[in-house]
Design brief:
By secondary structure, the chain is of the alpha+beta class. The chain has nine helices and 27 strands. α1 packs parallel to α2 and α7 runs parallel beside α9.
């Protein structure tokens, strides 16, 4: 697979688009067949997409607003990063689910119905980049139903669109359109495997807690008591402070882990409401068993390293051409400058291949032999072969 990575911090969307296309065309030696774009929320996304499409007519464009962007040694909170792809032995159809807020399962079936690999078996490997509007919710359902609708034949990687943790407006991109309440997928049918790795580095720090009531992304009660009281009890027992009026400093270091049997699916608490309920970045099912989790900068770096190794192992004997990397905006905020160490570790494993991606409001991963679904605070690495 032929790829070319590009990034820019030029504030004008039109000029930024022209810079990106220039870098990509120079790297590919031709216009891209497909274009993945991750853009900071400060940009005029409509103008950006219009200029990119005018400059690359016929290219399939997908992407999302982001919450921190990076490419190789460059990272920031006001960048656009893009990856152009081109190869005769790869097929790149695009699919859209228009309203996942009201019916994510139907949205998943809508995406799957556009996948050509379900009927055309010319290519042995089937993958898709999936980006969803995180604020629309139901991302867990979307990924689970995508897996069912594709009969487990596909692996998925990607994440939730971001807005630098403001949780006001997150968007996904398809062609010239900036979409809200939607999900987009770039199907990738390939002769060689795409390697996907996923790890998080968190471990339980509390006794198990039963979710006795939840309403979508709002966690109402744990063990029959208001959810905030369980977090406050954990804060007292561990010598920490939880300020209900400003809980983010506590929540960044004390997230929830949903027990899955083999691992933990992570959820980031976002606030404490007057009734003691706690909104989270994604759904926490009623009846599930959860733990307050802990992690360190070292464990996060190790998790990213392990995810990269797993992705490389899935390539077999093929060499890496480029890698997409997604991790949570909460990870970036919690680690601060230490997040640079995580990125450096991923780069170091990839033997000079381009690494680009963004911080997301949740991460999507579904790969053989690895836990799957929609996550928070989790490192997802997708390695594209030469």
């Amino acid at each position: 697979m032929k790829t070319a990575a590009a990034s820019t911090s030029t504030p004008d969307a039109g000029e930024a688009a022209r810079e990106l296309v220039g870098q990509i065309v120079e790297g590919l030696g031709r216009a891209p067949q497909a274009l993945m774009v991750f853009a900071a929320p400060s940009y005029d996304h409509e103008s950006l997409l219009a200029e990119l499409n005018d400059a690359c007519p016929g290219a399939l464009l997908v992407g999302a607003s982001s919450a921190g962007e990076f490419m190789n040694h460059r990272r920031g909170e006001g960048l656009i990063c893009a990856l152009g792809l081109s190869r005769n032995d790869v097929r790149f159809p695009v699919a859209v689910a228009w309203n996942i807020r009201s019916d994510a399962a139907a949205g998943a079936r809508q995406i799957a119905s556009s996948f050509s690999g379900l009927t055309d078996h010319s290519f042995p490997h089937r993958s898709a980049l999936v980006m969803t509007d995180a604020l629309a919710g139901h991302a867990d359902v979307l990924v689970d139903e995508l897996t069912l609708a594709t009969g487990g034949q596909y692996q998925f990687f990607g994440g939730g669109a971001g807005d630098n943790a403001q949780f006001q407006r997150t968007s996904v991109f398809c062609g010239r359109e900036v979409l809200n309440g939607a999900a987009v997928a770039l199907e990738m049918l390939t002769e060689k495997p795409i390697g996907v790795g996923v790890r998080h580095g968190w471990e339980p720090a509390s006794a198990p807690l039963r979710v006795t009531e939840a309403d979508g992304m709002r966690l109402v009660s744990l063990n029959g008591l208001p959810a905030a009281e369980a977090f406050e009890a954990h804060a007292r027992s561990t010598g920490q402070k939880l300020d209900r009026a400003a809980p983010i400093p506590f929540f960044l270091h004390n997230i929830l882990g949903i027990e899955t049997g083999s691992s933990y699916r992570l959820r980031v608490p976002l606030a404490v409401l007057e009734d003691g309920s706690v909104p989270c970045a994604a759904e926490v099912p009623t009846g599930s068993v959860v733990y307050v989790m802990r992690a360190t900068t070292t464990s996060a770096v190790e998790a990213a390293d392990q995810a990269t190794q797993a992705a490389l192992a899935a390539l077999g004997d093929h060499k890496p051409q480029a890698a997409l990397f997604f991790d949570c905006v909460a990870t970036r905020l919690r680690m601060g400058e230490g997040f640079g160490d995580e990125l450096a570790t991923v780069r170091g494993r990839l033997d000079g291949a381009d690494v680009l991606g963004c911080n997301t409001h949740g991460q999507i991963a579904r790969a053989d032999g690895q836990f799957d679904g929609f996550h928070n605070c989790t490192a997802v690495v997708a390695v594209l072969p030469e």
